[in-house]
Amino acid sequence: MIGRLSGILLEKNPPQVLVDCQGVGYEVDVPMSTFYNLPHTGEKVVLHIHYVVREDAHLLFGFGTASDRAVFRQLIKITGIGARMALSILSGMTVAELSQAVTLQEAGRLVKVPGIGKKTAERLLLELKGKLGADIGVVARDDAQADVMNALLALGYSDKEALAALKTMPAGTSVSDGIKLALKALSKA
């Protein structure tokens, strides 16, 4: 229903912000990673929104990037992980750190997040494996690299192979050139 809000940032009270969109003020809960990157009050802000409707409330969760929102949506699909817990996870670590923890299966990094115990951390690693790893952007420094990574995964290369090929790609390479370079690097391996 609501996928994006663009307006003036009126208030910042962690973890909630108030965004004025043409006279209507929306209260939005954001992870601390997004909160720290918000502009000053009175300035224009754009948030990617996840809208939750419950019997007792309509809630908006905002994210600075679409990839943050995508990870949030993956997290809330997991049994026992609600929106508040997912927000806590994204407040305790960046998407890249979470992706790396999943790729490397490091439960210890997840346990450091308040509210996450050993069993929950292990369940998160199990449920997110393959859904949230290198393909979300562990090493992707920009959108072009993320697109190259997705292309290599779609072609059937493993996460490890695609990551190794991305490491050979210079920063600022276009998507088409990046795919060519990556395929050339993979053919030599």
Which features characterize this protein?
9 helices; alpha+beta; five-stranded antiparallel beta sheet; 189 residues; 5 strands
Description:
A 5-stranded antiparallel β-sheet has the order 3-2-1-4-5, with helices on one face. The chain is α+β, with helices and mostly antiparallel strands. It has helices at residues 32-35, 66-76, 83-92, 95-104, 107-111, 118-128, 143-154, 159-167, 175-188, and strands spanning 4-13, 16-21, 24-29, 44-53, 58-63. The radius of gyration is 18 Å and the shape is globular. A hairpin with a 2-residue loop joins strand 1 (4-13) and strand 2. It starts with a strand and ends with a helix. Residues 134-140 have low confidence and may be disordered. The protein is 46% helix and 20% strand. 27% of the residues are buried. It contains 9 helices and 5 strands; from the N terminus they run E-E-E-H-E-E-H-H-H-H-H-H-H-H.
Radius of gyration, in Å, reads 18 Å
- What is the number of E strands? 5
**What is the overall number of helices?**
9
Q: Major sheet: size, sense and barrel closure?
A: 5 strands, antiparallel
Uncertain runs with pLDDT below 50, 5 residues or more?
134-140
Distance between the termini: 47 Å
Helix content, binned percent: 40-55%
Order of strands across the biggest sheet? 3-2-1-4-5
Query: What is the ordering of alpha helices and beta strands?
Result: EEEHEEHHHHHHHH
The rough form would be described as: globular
Task: Assign the structural class, choosing from mainly alpha, mainly beta, alpha/beta, alpha+beta, or little secondary structure.
Answer: alpha+beta
Strand content: 15-25%
Mean pLDDT: 86
